Amino acid sequence: MAYSDQEWETVRAFYERGLSLSEIVARDGVKIKSKSQISKKASAEGWEKLGKKKRLLDREVLSVQEVSAINEQKETLKETDLRIHNVLVDERTRHIEYFKKGNMLIATKIIKKVQASDLSVGELSQAAAGLGKAQDGVLGKSPDTAIQINNAVTHSQTDLEEARRIFDERRQLKGA
Questions:
Q1: By the number of CB atoms within 10 A of the CB, which of 62, 67, 157, 166 ranks highest?
Q2: Where exactly are the structural domains of the chain?
Q3: What are 117-149's pLDDT values in tens digits?
């Protein structure tokens, strides 16, 4: 029996979110019931069972659990406390979005400036630092920031040497 693209898309979506073949064929709404057919198509097309979509699912489930726990805590607040809490959450959320947008603009300007001009090593270093700050502002600091800070001296020396090499190459190209 030939199955539609939509039927295969549904099966693939379940597969890529980590469901077993038995779980997939047992689901209501799934018309494809042959585990071997699914397995062959998944192998042939390179379906990724534990990839980004599975991680997205896991993250969202954790987020829903966290929101549920927060809502349980909020139920214990008095009406005035809850109102103030919600006002502050809204304010902070707006501030975060404002700064994310601002940092994206800064990052875009830095990238355009670097691409459009010949920068000295010092200017390149400043641009890299500015871009790093903008990245932290948009994405937040990564959990391994402390490790990065500890390794910064080694990396910054390597980065500086790389920047000097690029700068020298540009200078030689201009002279040629």
A1: 166
A2: 1-76, 79-175
A3: 766 767 777 777 777 776 676 666 755 544 454
